[in-house]
TrEMBL record:
InterPro entries: Citrate_synth-like_lrg_a-sub (IPR016142), Citrate_synth-like_sm_a-sub (IPR016143), Citrate_synthase (IPR002020), Citrate_synthase_AS (IPR019810), Citrate_synthase_bac-typ (IPR024176), Citrate_synthase_sf (IPR036969), Citrate_synthase_typ-I (IPR010953). One of its GO terms (biological process) is tricarboxylic acid cycle. This is Citrate synthase. It comes from the Bacteria. Belongs to the citrate synthase family. It comes from Flagellimonas eckloniae. The keyword NAD does not apply. Pathway: Carbohydrate metabolism; tricarboxylic acid cycle; isocitrate from oxaloacetate: step 1/2. NCBIfam families: cit_synth_I, PRK05614.1. It catalyses: oxaloacetate + acetyl-CoA + H2O = citrate + CoA + H(+). It holds the Pfam family Citrate_synt. Keywords: Acyltransferase, Transferase, Tricarboxylic acid cycle.
Length: 391
């Protein structure tokens, strides 16, 4: 009771205390558990970062091996899950497929709701870190019409994901360190971002004591939207549209600035970063490097750079502090790696998985109360019911 202040979009409302990710939007700083994103993207691999985010410390060699082995033990997905996947049309968006399959995992892993001990939570966490990449790979294989497959225990976590996504029948899988490095980096850069829309969704669903997988499934749905993770797909589609339009970036800039046009420059702007997005800086550099080492020349990259330059010099964008965000250049790398455009947001979800898990675990360990925002009612006062014939 008492006065309720409303804050649409929670622009100034904190929902929790958290020891996971530090973000300074003015200075463009992002740190996981105290380690700078630049340092981690350069030196760590994705599985180490997952461990760091979830458990709070970088693992030593033995802890990392145990963690990885525990994950490998759980890397099978129930065969019956394939029937669910079969039921989707090939045209289904992989994000819908992924959230549905993640939700379905609850039915096949009923103990995943058990949070009565740290070890019970650990089992659920390891299980989803093992099975989620299989679902990601299945979503891509369905799109591409490839037979479903499982992982390879002899490979690293990210190598295995890559193999599961791309391995063709009767073809030897070739490891490519450039590709694996690029994937590792992208996944690390997406791994957590404090109380963003999907993470807040995971926390709020989890706060009702729904289980981890149900909470994650809700988070995936939240991520799907074009204002959030769906922006990476939208960016690439925008760049392709500009290309098809003869590279007319000016036209799209004008559309983005026109208040009567709902079009926004996708991959630009951020709720918290008002100076630059440190992830975008790293990804831009990486896009150049990856395309260079793979010997790919993509005119879309030039269009993106041109568009960025124009926006950074434009009053509209400067005044509103709109800069390229994480989604602006990531799609260009995914595309160079042969990942279909509709899979881009799935790759974001794969990267964000450890963050969602870490935030959910932190919330449950702290025993936070159910999330239940208030409102200010602005509707009708009391009215008498009128029978349908008299309306
Ligand atoms: N293009 C054109 N104008 C924009 C853009 C854009 N991309 N982003 C913000 N604006 C304008 C907006 O119209 C508003 O103008 P005015 O003050 O004249 O009304 C002003 O800038 C402030 O925008 P806002 O919508 O109030 O800001 P927000 O914090 O609510 O939204 C955002 C942040 C990221 C949703 C928004 O910038 C946006 O829609 N960007 C495009 C989609 C995108 O790239 N999303 C990915 C975000 S980063 C990673 C992730 O979360 O997945």
């Amino acid at each position: 009771s008492g006065m309720v202040t409303i804050d649409p979009g929670y622009k100034n409302t904190g929902s929790c205390e958290s020891a996971i990710t530090f973000l300074d939007g003015e200075k463009g700083i992002l740190r996981y558990r105290g380690y700078s994103i630049e340092d981690l993207a350069e030196k760590a691999d994705f599985l180490e970062v997952a461990y760091l985010l979830i458990f709070g410390e970088l693992p030593n060699k033995e802890q990392l091996d145990t963690f990885h082995n525990d994950i490998k033990e759980e890397s099978q997905v129930d065969e019956e899950m394939k029937k669910i996947l079969d039921g989707f049309p090939k045209s289904a968006h992989p994000m819908g497929v992924l959230s549905s399959l993640t939700s379905a995992l609850v039915a096949f892993n009923p103990t995943s709701v058990d949070v009565s001990s740290e070890s019970a939570m650990y089992s659920s966490i390891v299980r989803i870190l093992a099975k989620f990449p299989v679902l990601v790979a299945w979503a891509q294989r369905k799109k591409k019409g490839l037979p479903l497959d499982y992982g390879d225990d002899t490979l690293g976590y990210v190598e295995n994901i890559h193999k599961m996504m791309f391995k063709k029948p009767n073809q030897e899988y070739k490891k490519d360190p450039i590709v694996i490095d690029a994937l590792d980096k992208l996944l690390i850069l997406h791994a957590d971002h404090e109380q963003n829309c999907s993470t807040s969704t995971v926390r709020i669903v989890g706060s009702s004591h729904a289980g981890l997988y149900a909470s994650l499934s809700a988070g995936i749905s939240a991520l799907w939207g074009p204002l959030h993770g769906g922006a990476n797909q939208a960016v690439l589609e925008m760049l392709e549209a500009i290309q098809a339009d003869g590279g007319d970036t000016k036209k799209y800039m004008a559309k983005a600035k026109d208040k009567n046009d709902p079009f926004r420059l996708m991959g630009f702007g951020h709720r918290v970063y008002k100076n630059f997005d440190p992830r975008a800086k790293i990804i831009k550099k990486s896009a150049d490097e990856v395309l260079g080492s793979l010997g790919i020349e993509d005119p879309i990259l030039d269009i993106a750079k041109g568009l960025e330059k124009e926006a950074l010099e434009d009053d509209y964008f400067v005044k509103r502090k709109l800069y390229p965000n994480v989604d602006f250049y990531s799609g260009i790398i995914y595309r160079a790696l042969g990942i279909p455009t509709e899979m881009f947001t799935v790759m974001f979800a794969l990267g964000r998985l450890p963050g969602w898990i870490a935030q959910w675990r932190e919330m449950r360990l702290k025993g936070e109360p159910i999330g239940r925002p208030r409102q200010v009612y602005v509707g009708e006062n009391l009215r008498s019911f009128v029978n349908v014939e008299k309306r």
